């Protein structure tokens, strides 16, 4: 037997960020590019772009600042809000994971 969990962030009942979204934001933060992030994650550019727009619509604020390409190429960076929700998600997931492991050790190991 195993204990599993999923965590996500909502605002006014609207989805903001879950595991996949956190992976998208982390990849954008790392590569400074929506295109490179989507390639790394094996997701279409259109899907990633749509996900970001949906989150921004649900929040009423931008989470990614996008600068179009040109001679030096484009650049995407997380806004302060984007950084905040990514950090919040990662901390929530980490704390819940620790609690689940602790409870699993306490209760499930007794079943063996």
SSE order and pairing:
Elements: E1 9-11, E2 14-17, H1 19-31, H2 34-41, H3 45-59, E3 64-67, E4 75-78, H4 80-108
Antiparallel strand pairs: 1-2, 3-4
Helix pairs in contact: 1-2, 1-4, 2-3
Structural write-up:
The chain has four helices and four strands; from the N terminus they run ββαααββα. With 112 residues, the protein is an alpha+beta fold. The chain has one domain (12-111): Arc Repressor Mutant, subunit A, CATH 1.10.10.10. The strands form two sheets. Strands 1-2 form a two-stranded antiparallel sheet. It has a two-stranded antiparallel sheet with strand order 3-4. α1 (19-31) packs across α2, α1 (19-31) crosses α4 and α2 (34-41) packs across α3 (45-59). The termini are close together.
Keywords:
112 residues; alpha+beta; Arc Repressor Mutant, subunit A
Order of helices and strands: EEHHHEEH
Largest sheet: spatial strand order: 1-2
Helix proportion of residues, in percent? 55-70%
Derived from helix and strand composition plus strand pairing, the structural class reads alpha+beta
Report the uncertain regions.
Answer: none
């Amino acid at each position: 037997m195993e204990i599993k969990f999923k965590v996500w962030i909502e605002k006014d009942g609207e989805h903001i960020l879950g595991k996949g979204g956190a992976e998208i934001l982390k990849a954008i933060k790392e590569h400074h590019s929506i295109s490179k992030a989507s390639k790394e994650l094996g997701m279409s550019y259109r899907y990633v772009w749509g996900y970001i727009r949906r989150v921004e619509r649900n929040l009423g604020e931008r989470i990614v600042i996008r600068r179009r390409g040109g001679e030096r190429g484009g650049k995407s960076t997380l806004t302060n809000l984007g950084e905040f929700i990514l950090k919040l998600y990662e901390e929530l997931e980490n704390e819940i994971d620790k609690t689940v492991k602790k409870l699993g050790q306490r209760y499930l190991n007794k079943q063996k």
